[in-house]
Amino acid sequence: MKGVFHCKGCGSALSGEIALQSLKDPAVQQPAMLDQQPVCPIGMGYKSYEPFQRSFDPANPAPLEFSPQYWLNPEDVIEACRMTKKHERTIGCCGISGNGAPNLLCRKCRTEVGTMQTDCFTPLIFIPDPSNTEFRKAD
Ligand SMILES: [Zn+2]
Ligand SMILES: [Zn+2]
Questions:
Q1: Any idea which ligand is nearest the CA of 119?
Q2: Residues paired with 125 in a beta bridge
Q3: Contact (Cβ atoms closer than 8 angstroms) between residue 113 and residue 101
Q4: Ligand 1 center to residue 59 CA distance, Å?
Q5: What is the number of domains present in the chain?
Q6: Can you give the C-alpha Rg of the chain in angstroms?
Q7: Tens digit of pLDDT per residue, the chain (139 long)?
Q8: CA distances in angstroms from 18 to 21, 41, 62, 71, 96, listed in the order given
Q9: How far is the CA of 53 from the centre of ligand 1 (A)?
């Protein structure tokens, strides 16, 4: 399934064309999720039915504990985004560990469009915020 992620705030494209693979599809290999490695090549993405984060306290779900969710290579969206000024959301030791709260904003309208992690103990990943972004399928 191919398409483009868009900002719901202003409608502009956040990515180029992305070929999405569903992790429910048994033919799709599960991503390795290696530290400092992109979750997938540029131009690709996963639709995951397992959340990237889980809290052990059901009353306090982790920020990225929702599904389905998309897992993208940050390189695909970084040009259309800018970093939040909320420092606690960009903390990391040599990159952005991202505590799960959105840290990338749409460059045009500043809507919070998702969470990026790029630290040495995280894969390189971008997870769009489902309430502020939409995936529009290419025909
Ligand atoms: Zn926007
Ligand atoms: Zn680090």
A1: 2
A2: 117
A3: no
A4: 32
A5: 1
A6: 14
A7: 999 999 999 999 999 999 999 999 999 999 999 999 999 999 999 999 999 988 889 899 899 999 999 999 999 999 999 999 998 899 999 999 877 789 999 999 999 999 999 999 999 999 999 999 999 999 7
A8: 10, 10, 27, 11, 23
A9: 26
Tokens of 112: 């919070």
Please report which ligand is nearest the Cα atom of 7.
Answer: 1
Burial of 87 (0-12, 13-18, 19+ CB in 10 A): exposed
Which listed ligand is nearest to 113 at the C-alpha? 1
Q: Residue 21 belongs to what domain range?
A: 2-137
CA distances from 48 to 10, 98, 105, 108 (A): 26, 19, 22, 28
- Separation of CA 94 and ligand 2 centre (Å): 4
Q: What type of residue is 70?
A: Y
